[in-house]
TrEMBL record:
<dbReference type="InterPro" id="IPR055270">
    <property type="entry name" value="Glyco_tran_10_C"/>
</dbReference>
<protein>
    <recommendedName>
        <fullName>Fucosyltransferase</fullName>
        <ecNumber>2.4.1.-</ecNumber>
    </recommendedName>
</protein>
<dbReference type="GO" id="GO:0046920">
    <property type="term" value="F:alpha-(1-&gt;3)-fucosyltransferase activity"/>
</dbReference>
<keyword id="KW-0333">Golgi apparatus</keyword>
<keyword id="KW-0812">Transmembrane</keyword>
<feature type="compositionally biased region" description="Basic and acidic residues">
    <location>
        <begin position="1"/>
        <end position="12"/>
    </location>
</feature>
<dbReference type="InterPro" id="IPR001503">
    <property type="entry name" value="Glyco_trans_10"/>
</dbReference>
<keyword id="KW-0328">Glycosyltransferase</keyword>
<feature type="compositionally biased region" description="Polar residues">
    <location>
        <begin position="13"/>
        <end position="30"/>
    </location>
</feature>
<dbReference type="Pfam" id="PF00852">
    <property type="entry name" value="Glyco_transf_10"/>
</dbReference>
<dbReference type="GO" id="GO:0032580">
    <property type="term" value="C:Golgi cisterna membrane"/>
</dbReference>
<comment type="similarity">
    <text>Belongs to the glycosyltransferase 10 family.</text>
</comment>
<feature type="domain" description="Fucosyltransferase C-terminal">
    <location>
        <begin position="48"/>
        <end position="130"/>
    </location>
</feature>
<keyword id="KW-0808">Transferase</keyword>
<comment type="pathway">
    <text>Protein modification; protein glycosylation.</text>
</comment>
<dbReference type="InterPro" id="IPR038577">
    <property type="entry name" value="GT10-like_C_sf"/>
</dbReference>
<feature type="region of interest" description="Disordered">
    <location>
        <begin position="1"/>
        <end position="34"/>
    </location>
</feature>
Length: 220
């Protein structure tokens, strides 16, 4: 092979490698803001042009074509990253992040799970103290009831976005997510029944689960 041809071949190969690396890098970045999740996701995005919402597309093909067009148009692509320089315009998100007591990868703050457990305990103590104060002095009003529903912490059973579970391999994470979902739901049912029965020893939870399993009272 002539030197000029070898040089051109090396140059072509290098260009192809650079293009592949660029596409791979950009694709991974695009993946970072392509979302399929909670119906309330729009309430929590940094601004109105910071994510690609899967639900806005009629089919995977339409989504793929959009991503391909975006990959070829740097100007349009960079619009999705402008919030990183301009800041978060979503006031609900800003207000929530600034006021929350939990952190992410921050050893000085509790995780969101621990913080939520603390929140529940604080509200329970608040109610108990208010009831005791009302018993001593009926003129002190009781706190209004707080009843959670599916909009607070509800979550549907995990499922695949396309097709059904028959095409999902046994080692895929979604199988574990489903197990966690039903296990957590059963524990919630057991805790609810224990609470209604006036139980005060949470260490009896798994004994209650066993009784409910024997009775056929669990969710699945």
């Amino acid at each position: 092979m002539e030197p000029s041809l070898r040089k051109r071949d090396r140059s072509t190969t290098k260009t192809q490698q650079e293009q592949a690396q660029s596409l791979s890098k950009k694709s991974s970045q695009i993946k970072g803001f392509r979302l399929k999740g909670s119906p309330s996701v729009r309430d929590w995005i940094p601004d109105n042009h910071s994510i690609i919402l899967v639900d806005n597309f009629q089919s995977p093909k339409e989504l793929a074509e959009f991503i391909k067009r975006l990959d070829k148009n740097d100007k349009e692509y960079l619009k999705y990253l402008e919030f990183k320089n301009k800041g978060i315009s979503n006031q609900l998100l800003r207000h929530t992040v600034e006021r929350r007591v939990w952190g992410v990868n921050d050893w000085r703050k509790p995780s969101f799970i621990n913080a939520f457990e603390c929140y529940l305990c604080e509200r329970i103590v608040e109610r108990v103290e208010a009831e005791r104060a009302h018993e001593r002095d009926p003129s002190i009003p009781l706190l209004p009831p707080r009843v959670a529903d599916g909009n607070h912490a509800g979550c549907p059973e995990p499922s695949v976005s396309l097709g059904d579970m028959s095409g999902v391999g046994r080692g895929e994470d979604i199988h574990f997510w489903k197990e966690d979902y039903w296990s957590s739901k059963d524990q919630a049912l057991a805790l609810k029944r224990m609470s209604e029965q006036g139980a005060t020893d949470s260490s009896k939870l798994f004994e209650e689960l066993q009784r409910m399993f024997t009775e056929g009272a669990l969710s699945k």
